[in-house]
Design brief:
By secondary structure, the protein is an all-alpha fold. The protein has one domain: Farnesyl Diphosphate Synthase (Orthogonal Bundle), CATH 1.10.600. Helices cover 73% and strands 1% of the residues. Strands 1-2 form a two-stranded antiparallel ribbon. Helix 2 crosses helix 6, helix 7 packs across helix 8 and helix 16 runs antiparallel to helix 17. The longest helix has 28 residues. The two termini are 21 Å apart. 42% of the residues are buried.
Length: 300
């Protein structure tokens, strides 16, 4: 897809998601106002919106509409945002910056940040199973999507990956295979869910879902390796967060295990794999294929 068309589509999807998130978590003047301020602080902080974009993109590619996919897209972004809030807490990564601003617990306090993350996680399922979602999708597809989302976010997915990540710090030697298994859950599970949620929203069949899973698995690993590369080569102002934090915390990454050159080659190979997975969709896959290529060379 031509670059300007791709960028315009990204902006359109992001604008749609941002507007809906703003409606779903409104400003409140009630006694719980600090909670809503904390939720909105991180939820509406911008970012690439990769996960909701994948939901919308896969739904459209499979013949669905934006309205069908939007509840799943927003629910997924809420879960992603909660995970970032919690990741930054002192008991986890203890990071002071997120997207170029003080992390949530620095802007508010630890207790409020913890509860804001909890609230966003819970809100996600309220949205995925809302009357609006059921009207758009039907009860069966809405329930299927919510079930998939729970698996991807919980002990079968992202949380399991976080546990493995903590364990990895205690291992005498960390292999690339172990790291890949960790990231398939910690990062890859939500990206895979995004692609599959789009196919569920569109009512797509088995072959489309299999292609979506192959694409997302390759994209997810490439995404994480590129993150590791940027932690070494990136610019802190562009990234909006500290660089070199992996090395500072003694964290082993694809760059430290494979070397920078081999890590870059791995990103390119995985990106080609993701693009090829969608070949059966022809021109309908242009946007998602271009997205994979853009993420492989991103600078933030």
């Amino acid at each position: 897809m031509e670059k300007t068309r791709f960028q315009a589509q990204m902006r359109e999807y992001a604008k749609l998601v941002n507007a809906q998130l703003d409606l779903l978590v409104p400003e409140e003047t009630v006694s719980e106002k600090p909670l809503y301020e904390s939720m909105r602080y991180s939820l509406l902080a911008g970012g690439k919106r990769v996960r909701p974009v994948l939901v919308l993109g896969f739904c459209k590619m499979c013949g669905g509409t934006e309205g069908q996919a939007l509840p799943f897209a927003c629910a997924l972004e809420m879960i992603h945002t909660y995970s970032l809030i919690h990741d930054d807490l002192p008991c986890m990564d203890d990071d002071d910056l997120r997207r170029g601003r003080p992390s949530n617990h620095r802007a508010f306090d630890e207790a409020t940040a913890l509860l804001a993350g909890d609230a966003l996680l819970t809100k996600a399922f309220e949205v995925a199973l809302s009357p609006e979602s059921i009207t758009q999708l039907g009860a069966s597809r809405a329930a299927e999507g919510a079930h998939l989302l729970a698996q991807a976010a919980g002990d079968h997915g992202m949380i399991a990956g976080q546990v493995l990540d903590l364990q990895n710090d205690t291992l005498p030697q960390l292999t690339a295979q172990r790291l890949q298994m960790t990231d398939a859950k910690k990062t890859g599970a939500l990206l895979r869910a995004a692609a599959l949620l789009g196919t569920i929203a569109a009512g797509a069949g088995k072959s489309a879902r299999q292609a979506a899973a192959r694409y997302a698995d390759a994209l997810g690993l490439a995404f994480q390796i590129q993150d590791d590369i940027l932690d070494v080569t990136g610019d802190e102002k562009t990234l909006g967060k500290p660089i070199g934090s992996d090395a500072e915390h003694g964290k082993r990454t694809y760059v430290s295990i494979l070397g920078l050159s081999a890590a870059r080659e791995k990103v390119q190979a995985l990106t080609e794999e993701a693009v090829e997975a969608l070949a059966p969709f022809g021109e309908r896959a242009d946007f998602l294929q271009t997205l994979a290529q853009a993420l492989a060379v991103r600078e933030h």
